[in-house]
Design a protein that fits this description.
This protein is mainly α. The protein has a single domain, classed as Four Helix Bundle (Hemerythrin (Met), subunit A) (Up-down Bundle), CATH 1.20.120. 80% of the residues lie in helices and 0% in strands. It contains 6 helices and no strands. It is globular, with a radius of gyration of 16 Å. The protein starts with a helix and ends in a 5-residue tail after the last helix. The relative contact order is 0.17.
Length: 183
Amino acid sequence: MSDIFTELETDHQVVLRLVQQLHTPGLAPDARDRIVQRLVMEESKHEAAEEMWFWPAVRELLSNGEGLRNAGLDQEEEAKALLQQLMEAPAASLEVDRLLGELLPAVRAHVDYEQARVWPALRSALPPATAHKLGARYRSSYQNGPTRPHPRTPADPAVLKVAGRAAAAVDRARDALTRRGVS
C-alpha cells in the first residue's frame, strides 16, 4: 500500500508523460485525439480524488492549509474548465491547439505547486500511517472516479463523495457506449 505522496506522484507522472506525448513532432491527429481523451480522463479522476482526500488533509493539518488549499483548488478549477472546453472542441481544430497551449503550462505549474510548496509541509505534519490510509482512500476514489471534468461540481469532499460517485457512473456508462478511452 502506497502513501498519498506516492499515489499523487504516480498520477502526476502519467499526466506529465501524456503532456510530453502531445508535444511529439508530426503526431497524427487520431493519435493526438486519443492522448487528449486519456489526458482528460486521467486529470478528471485525479482532481476529483485530490479534492476528496488530499486538499482536506492540507486544510486540516497545516497552519496555512486553507490558503494552500484554496490556491490549489483555484488551479484545479481552471484546469477543469479547460478540460471541458477541450472535450467539446473538434479534434483537429485550432481551438484544440489554443486550449492545449493554456492547459499544458497550467498542469505543469499545478504539479510544481503541489510538489514544491504543499508536499514538504504536509509530509512533516502527516504521520506515516495516516499518509498510507490517505493513499489507499485516494487510490480507491481515483479508480472509481469521474472520467470527465465537472467544473460546476463544488470542491466539497462531502458533495464529491456522493455526487462524484453518481457522476463517475454516468461518465463510465457514456464511455462504454461511445468506446471512449478504448484504443
